[in-house]
Write a structure and sequence with these properties.
Elements: H1 2-28, H2 32-45, H3 54-72, H4 74-87, H5 92-104, H6 108-121, H7 126-139, H8 144-148, H9 151-166, E1 171-175, E2 186-189, H10 201-211, E3 227-229, H11 254-274, H12 281-284, E4 286-288, E5 291-300, H13 302-308, E6 321-325, E7 332-334, E8 344-345, E9 350-356, H14 360-368, E10 373-378, E11 383-384, E12 387-395, E13 401-403, E14 416-420, E15 426-427, E16 432-439, E17 443-447, E18 459-463, H15 465-471, H16 474-498, E19 507-510, H17 516-524, E20 529-532, H18 535-543, E21 548-550, E22 559-563, H19 577-587, E23 588-595, E24 598-603, E25 606-607, H20 609-613, H21 628-631, E26 638-642, E27 651-652, E28 658-664, E29 670-672, E30 679-682, E31 696-704, E32 709-722, E33 742-745, E34 755-766, E35 771-779, E36 782-789
Parallel strand pairs: 1-2, 1-3, 2-4, 6-18, 19-20, 19-22, 20-21, 22-23
Antiparallel strand pairs: 5-8, 5-9, 5-12, 7-14, 10-16, 11-15, 12-13, 12-14, 16-17, 24-28, 24-32, 25-27, 26-34, 28-29, 30-31, 31-35, 32-33, 32-34, 35-36
Helix pairs in contact: 1-2, 2-3, 3-4, 4-5, 5-6, 5-7, 6-7, 10-14, 16-17
């Protein structure tokens, strides 16, 4: 038997060795799929080799799984993950890759589990933190945490619900909690958005009146017991003056269910019989909120205008064109009380409708358009109308009201619905503006009979908010137009110097949100060919009669000029920008030009209660309902699209901002900007970092705090640097830096981007003069930032 076992082991070992030989052959020949198969079999037959081949296996798996996903979709790639995890079940790299794959396919909850496993093993890795942050932002909508921290709103709902329960409305359904199975006497809805009727609230309440609401019931001796179904207010002690426990679960037995069923049929008939009449809460239950008063006004607001219409006229192809925003929703949402640059009220607030949520007729009228009408505004100021804005008084009952007006003394979490006026409309004081108000489940507002007519000789051009914000950023556009002219002069100089008869057409690629530089250079050099990245931009330009191609059609070593844009309008790096920059480097011709060449990552340290409220739940704000522990398990630690200049009650604790890293858009290399003794570059991954992802740069600097405060957030933005005199360098000189040239900051008032913020896991209490250590980890275009107290041994002057 021993001899037989030894023989089997020898045969297995030989089989593993043969598979390794075949693996190496396939790897050298570029057959990724066969390489993965042979290496998987080798590890199955020779498990002692797993540690030795871990990095190699991950490299092969990453390439093959990406090909399989592109060709065959999620089902095929999941089979590969099953094979790989069988070999390395605890691998943080595999769990990270699987989380990213599931995230791309929309399986957010399943992806979260794998992201947490990867982050637990590699807590410092920026890639692991990035995927977990993206998933957290998907799992927790951006308004949930501020809503739960809105103490005034929560208190108002609590008082209204408490009073209703005292009056006998003791079976509660919270709309938005996902249940509609039982009959109730009190419906509570918190699914109100900036436009009031968000999340299909009217049709939901119509259904509640027709199928759910029952008459109120008084308990014996006027002692109220509230049956709460899936409500956020249970279980808790909500007693006030009465000292009674008003919220607890109510379990019904089978007999009560049968009684309810028999009652249901009668109630259904009653609802049908009175559907055309006035239903009152005394007869058929109650809805909280009770009613809403809707008001609208006209405003002038540069921040809204920059996102919705073209304000400049420098771009030749857009002159005499009706250029406006391409919106997917009828309105935008903005917090008018802290919108960047503020706004100017051009009219009084005019009430356009009132909806009684305790009237089925009223709800139905707002669903069917019966309340639509024409409204005349009398203007009180001169100015340009950029938007119609909406605010409301939300009456929870007769005693408790929540206001969403920007000048309200007590501000709530709700933003304001903003309906852009996307054509030029200037008004003077005492002018009358006619408004078209429509409501068929959603409120729609538009100015009627505008003085501007897009049919009078104007072609319509629809652009994204990203493109319009860039076009309206005058300083950025001017610098890129200037760069295009400098490139033209440089090209002409080269042509005159070489005197070559084989001058090929100039190949230009422009990745800007709108290719202003490429279009300018093409107009100066008519025989050139322009390439863009965005199909939507290509379509717009083709409709304007401009021939452009997509960048995928560029041949290797033919690209002469690259105008590259590395940032999103939210203020972050475009996904995969470093890989994209490296791909473009393969397309570049000899003596080609890249503009801009560099980015600088700049950071600050803030105390911001507003941002803290968007990150951590405090049970002090939730009326005694302990939900913080649960919600704080999924923290949104990376906030995008933040306008730092307009954040209320926010202050920096540093004397000056801190440039941390310089990034080459030519080669992808990084360079630290802090003092040499305060920075450290890691060439290889350590044990608490993923194996995949390439080299890691870690930058740290010790900073002095200027005030006694609580530190909550690490905002960041970018300086964009470029110099046309620097032609494309070779990779060894890619970080050659010049202090001359263009510097554009995405923190500036004219920036086409907002800023983004890393939040601390826990706020840090500090005193003036105390030193803190700011760390940034950068890995292939993904980075993270942390803040800790400086140890005594780390203190530096």
């Amino acid at each position: 038997m021993k001899a037989l076992a030894a023989g089997q082991m020898s045969t297995t070992k030989q089989g593993g060795e043969r598979q390794l030989v075949e693996f190496e052959k396939c790897r050298l020949s570029g057959e990724i799929g066969l390489s993965f198969s042979h290496l998987s079999l080798a590890l199955l037959l020779s498990p002692h080799l797993k540690q030795q081949y871990y990095s190699t296996y991950l490299e092969i798996f990453e390439k093959w799984s990406q090909k399989a996903e592109d060709s065959h979709g999620l089902s095929q790639v999941m089979t590969l993950y099953e094979v790989a995890l069988n070999h390395y079940p605890e691998s943080p790299d595999l769990h990270y890759l699987l989380a990213a794959t599931l995230y791309r396919h929309g399986s957010v909850h399943e992806a979260w589990n794998h992201a947490c496993l990867a982050e637990a093993k590699c807590p410092r890795d920026p890639c692991a933190q990035d995927i977990q942050g993206r998933l957290a932002n998907c799992l927790v909508d951006r308004w949930h945490l501020p809503m739960l921290n809105d103490a005034g709103r929560n208190a108002a709902f609590r008082m209204a619900i408490t009073e209703a329960v005292r009056e006998g409305y003791n079976t509660v359904l919270d709309i938005g909690s996902g249940t509609g199975l039982l009959r109730v006497s009190l419906v509570v809805s918190e699914t109100v958005d900036a436009g009031l009727f968000g999340e299909h609230i009217l049709s939901t309440l119509q259904h509640a009146w027709q199928h759910l609401l029952l008459p109120p019931q008084k308990s014996e001796n006027d002692k109220t017991t509230a049956g709460v179904i899936q409500t956020q207010l249970s279980p808790c002690d909500t007693s006030q003056a009465s000292g009674e426990q008003l919220c607890k679960y109510w379990q019904r037995d089978d007999s009560s269910r049968q009684e309810d069923d028999s009652t249901d049929s009668v109630t259904n008939l009653d609802h049908i019989n009175v559907a055309k009449g006035k239903i009152t809460s005394q007869e058929y239950g109650r809805v909280i909120p009770a009613r809403a008063e809707v008001y609208v006004a006209l405003i002038s607001c540069s921040y809204v205008a920059k996102q919705t219409k073209y304000l400049n006229s420098d771009i030749e192809c857009l002159k005499n064109k009706y250029v406006n925003v391409r919106l997917e929703e009828p309105y935008m949402s903005e917090k008018l009380s802290c919108v960047p640059g503020g706004f100017k009220l051009l009219s009084e607030w005019i009430q356009v409708t009132t909806v009684d949520f305790n009237s089925l007729n009223d709800i139905t009228n707002h669903l069917t358009g019966e309340v639509s009408k024409i409204i005349n505004f009398k203007c009180i100021e001169d100015g340009t109308v950029d938007a119609i804005v909406l605010a409301f008084n939300l009456y929870l009952d007769e005693k408790n009201c929540i206001r969403t007006f920007p000048d309200s003394v007590i501000q709530t979490v709700w933003e304001n619905a903003v309906y852009p006026v996307v054509y030029p409309l200037s008004i003077a004081s005492e002018d009358t503006v006619t408004l078209d108000f429509q409501c068929c489940g959603v409120i729609r507002l538009a100015v009627q009979n505008p003085t501007f007519s897009c049919s009078s000789g104007y072609d319509s051009v629809n652009l994204s908010t990203n493109a319009l914000r860039f076009l309206n950023s005058r300083s950025f556009v001017d610098e890129f137009l200037s760069a295009a002219h400098q490139v033209f002069f440089k090209v002409q100089q080269c042509k005159n110097k070489n005197k070559s008869s084989n001058n090929h057409p100039l190949i230009i690629c422009d990745t800007l949100p709108f290719p202003v530089a490429g279009l300018c250079l093409q107009s100066l050099q008519p025989d050139s060919q322009l390439y863009v990245e965005d199909e939507a931009i290509q379509k717009v330009l083709q409709e304007l009669g401009i021939a452009v191609k997509l960048y995928e059609e560029i041949q290797e070593e033919t690209l002469d000029v690259l105008f590259i844009w590395p940032l999103t309008e939210e203020g972050t790096l475009i996904d995969g920008i470093m890989e994209k920059a490296q791909s473009y480097s393969l397309l570049m011709a000899k003596d080609s030009i890249v503009f801009p060449q560099e980015l600088e990552l700049v950071m600050d340290i803030f105390n911001s209660p507003v941002l803290e409220a968007c990150t951590h739940i405090s049970d002090d704000n939730t009326c005694g309902v302990a939900v913080a522990r649960v919600f704080n398990m999924v923290q949104t630690k990376h906030h995008l699209d933040v306008a730092l200049s307009s954040l209320p009650h926010t202050s920096s604790v540093l004397t000056q901002v801190v440039p941390m890293l310089r990034i080459s858009l030519v080669s992808g290399q990084t360079e630290t900007l802090v003092k040499p003794q305060e920075s450290l570059t890691l060439q290889d991954a350590s044990r608490d970092l993923l194996v995949l992802g390439g080299k890691v740069a870690e930058v740290m600097t010790c900073l002095t705090v200027t005030q006694d405060t609580k530190l909550t957030s690490l905002p960041y933005w970018f300086n964009v640097r470029g110099n046309i005199e620097q032609a494309l360098p070779d990779s060894s000189a890619a970080m050659v830096h010049s202090e001359n040239g263009v510097v554009l900051s995405t923190l500036s008032e004219d920036s086409p981007c907002n800023q983004s913020v890393f939040m601390l896991k826990q706020p840090l209490e500090v005193t003036a003069g105390e030193k803190v250590m700011l760390r940034v980890l950068w890995r292939g275009g993904v980075f993270s930032a942390t803040l800790d107290r400086c140890q005594q041994s780390d203190d530096r002057d």
